[in-house]
Each structure stands twice: as C-alpha cells, then as structure tokens.
Amino acid sequence: MKTLLKPKGYYLSFLLLALAISITSCKEKEENNGKLVASNANIAATLEMKAELTSPPNVPRSVGRRKAKKLIVDMEILEKEGEMADGVSYVYWTFGGSVPGSFIRTRVGDEVEFHLKNHPDNKLPHNIDLHAATGPGGGAASSFVAPGHETQFSFKVLSPGLYVYHCATAPVGMHIGNGMYGLILVEPEGGLPQVDKEYYIMQGDFYTSGDNGEKGLQSFNMEKAIEEDADYVVFNGKVGSTTGDNAITAEVGDKVRLFVGNGGPNLVSSFHVIGEIFDIVRVEGGSMINENVQTTIIPSGGAAIVEFMVDVPGTYILVDHSIFRAFNKGALGMLNVTGEENKKIYSGTQKESVYQPETSGEKPDMAMNVEELKEKLPLKSRAERIAAGKAVYAQTCFACHQANGQGVPNAFPPLAGSDYLNANVDRAIGIVLNGNKGKITVNGKEYNGIMTPQNLNDDDTANVLTYVYDSWGNSKKDIKPDMVKKIRNSH
Ligand SMILES: [Cu+2]
User: Fold this and answer.
1) How many Å lie between the centroid of ligand 1 and the Cα of residue 78?
2) 102: CA distance to ligand 1 center in Å?
3) CA–CA separation, 351 vs 349, rounded Å?
4) 13 CA distance to ligand 1 centroid (A)?
5) Within 10 A of 111 (CB to CB), how many other CB atoms are there?
6) 85-104 burial code (b ≥16 CB/10 A, e <16)
7) Which of 44, 40, 14, 39 has its CA nearest to residue 27?
8) How far is the CA of 171 from the centre of ligand 1 (A)?
9) pLDDT tens for each residue of 263-305
10) What are phi and psi of 297, to 5 degrees?
11) What pTM does this model have?
C-alpha cells in the first residue's frame, strides 16, 4: 500500500509544482505586458484584477470584450454625516462613502472576491447581501463584520443583469433605510452595446425624526418607517443630488443609458423622464427588453436599465411619477441636454393669443370683453385678494416653489424671504407673466433654471403676488391688476 501511494503523492506534488510554475511565468508576462501588442492581449490577460468602484452618478468603464476573471472588490463601510436637504443633515450608513454605495461592474463568469471592511470609527456591525450572488443570504451569511474588522468571501456571477446589493443586518429595514444599498452590474459576454453616456441613479425613501424640511441633524424614525410614511423620497441619497449644477448631461444625438435602482426600504418607484420616451427598458434589470416605454416600475430591491436617444436640447426632469414624491419629497433629478434645436421634432411655442369664445349671442353689440368688464368692477378687499391668490399659488406655483415658498435647493429659488422678490416689484410681475431663465441670485444662492410663463390673467397674477408678498416674511407689497397690465403691455 505504502509503495503504491508514494508515486501518486509524488506525481501530485509534481503536478502542483508545474501548475505553480506556469502561473508564475504567466504573471511575469503580465508585468511586462506594456510592451505586448494588442493581438497578444489574450496571453497578457491577467487572471485577476481590482474592480473599479464609482460613486453615483458615475459608473465604471464597461467590461468590453475582456475574459472572465477573478475580480477583487474592496468595499469600505462608512457611517458618516451628510446633507439630506438644505440645512437638513443625516448620519448615513454607506457602502464606500456614498448613497447609493459604490457601483460594481462585472461580467458573467467573473469570480468576485469581496473584501468588506467596517471602519473602526463605525458604531455597528454590518454585512452585505448581493442579489447577483447565488448562495446563502447572497453573501450575508459570510460577511457579517464588526467595526475595525474585515471579512472576505467569493462568489461567481452566473447571470447577466443589474442587481441591487444591500446590508442585511438586523434590523434590516433600518440598515437599508439609512442608505446601505447600491448596484452591481453583471454584463453579458462581450459587454452591453456601447452608448454615449451612462449614469447611475438610485431611489431611496427616508424617515426622519422631524418633518420634511425641518432643519438640523435628523435621526431615523422607526415608527414612520413601519408606517411607510416617508419624509424624503430621493435620488442618490439627497434632495437635489442631480439637479442644477449637479444635473447629469448629454448632447443632442447621444444615446443615454441609465442604471436605475431602488433601494427602498419601502416604496416602489414609477420612474419617468419628463419629455422623453425610453427606446428600450431592460425590465427589472433582467434580459427582457421592452420598447417605447413612458414610465417603468422599479420595485424596492430591484432595478431597471433604461436607454434613450436625446433628440432636442433642454432640461429633462427625472421623477418618480408618484408625483408628490417628486415635487414635495425630493424624487426629482435633471438631465441637461445641449446642442442644436430640431424644430421638426419639437417646435417650442408657435403662437400665443387671447382665447375668448363667443358668448351665447345675447345682445352681442352690448357684450363687453372680459377685461373691460373686470375694470368696471370694484376691487375686492385685500383679504379677499390674498385668499384668491393663495388658491392660485396652490394650483400654479407650489409644485416648484413649494408649499411654504421654501423652494427646492439648486432647482427652484425660494419665495419665502426672497431678497430678489422684495427688491423689485415690477421685475417679479414680469417673471410671473413672461417666465425667467438664466442665472439669478436669491438670498446669496445662485439659480440657473427655467421658469415658464404662467399664463395667468391680470387679476390672478396680481392676487398670487399679493399673497406671496404677504406671506413668509416678505415685504407686504400690494399688487393691483393695473400694475400687472402696465408690465404686460410694456412687453
Ligand atoms: Cu448595515
């Protein structure tokens, strides 16, 4: 027996030695591979590489034609304070320092060697469940890690698609609710088709101790989370993450691909881009392709890849079309497209005129036009005009400037205590009548957006401005219809 076994062991160790030599020599080749020509790329291809990780809205380079490899992911968990909205801060728990966490880009067949580090300054243990992994807890069972420790596990990515990862440490909802989620993309063999622009957008709902807009450091509110009563619903972790100067960009003619995820913890997103139609949606991040889609549904813990060509310049607004979330809770982003107009695809306003249909015909010769009639009526009391203005505000202005005139950081300037508003009444009237675009500074902050003309008559314009001036610490100016008429006629 002994003599029989000996040669076996001998051959085995020889085999291992040969393997080790071939790996080393291959490694040596790689180290010199700067000199190798592209046709030798296969020989030079490394057996392993470090994954490029990016924070939103950026994504790593596409995998292209590279072969499957061992892909080393180095992910650090950081619990850190950030800004939820203007003046509102929050302690986020993050994968890689951002919400959503670092984007991981792999190709099918890669063996992902995952190193999860929990920073020593953190207070809690965490782990990670990757929906792209097959195995207990998607990795959660092998990755529980205390502050000041590192854990390692490996998994093979078997199925192409866009997958969510998240922390799965109890209470799971709280870890997710504090921002512990992100996306991992598994590209098919040969990679996804090339496009011009790719971005990473992920929705999440947040539950804070104070109401939406309440200033100061907010903590997680478990009761509201259980009730699914979100204070903030946002893209990329905060209100205004992708608006104004932070807007994502493209040029006319570009093919744009958005990797869109939803971390939840609770809400399902009705993802829509105002003014665009998705040429294709890779539904739920999987292999099914739907074409010509207006709004795609992204479940909590799910994702979708949407692709569209941008044909005309302008600002395209990304929203959760459960629309109060967009205008009142923050789920609003912007894609700025620059380039040549194409009037055949979109004309812009072609003409604007008064619309006064004929009345039923009684005494047509005596009928006064509406404006003349209004001029004859006595002006209502200031209180009545303010009440009427409030109603106009609630219908017309509030979507952008918000219920208490506070505006939306980096997108819509405040009307509350607005130095810009209070400095010049005629200018304010002009803005409501004709809209405004270009840079303006309101209370020391710069805005560079577009307000469209509001198409209100003189009375409504006067009333809404009287209401605005009367509210939120503004200068109490009284705006009369004839003041509006004067500005209207001067244009
Ligand atoms: Cu966690």
Assistant:
1) 10
2) 15
3) 6
4) 44
5) 16
6) bbebebbbbbbbbbbbbbbb
7) 44
8) 9
9) 999 999 999 999 999 999 999 999 999 999 999 999 999 999 9
10) -95, 130
11) 0.64
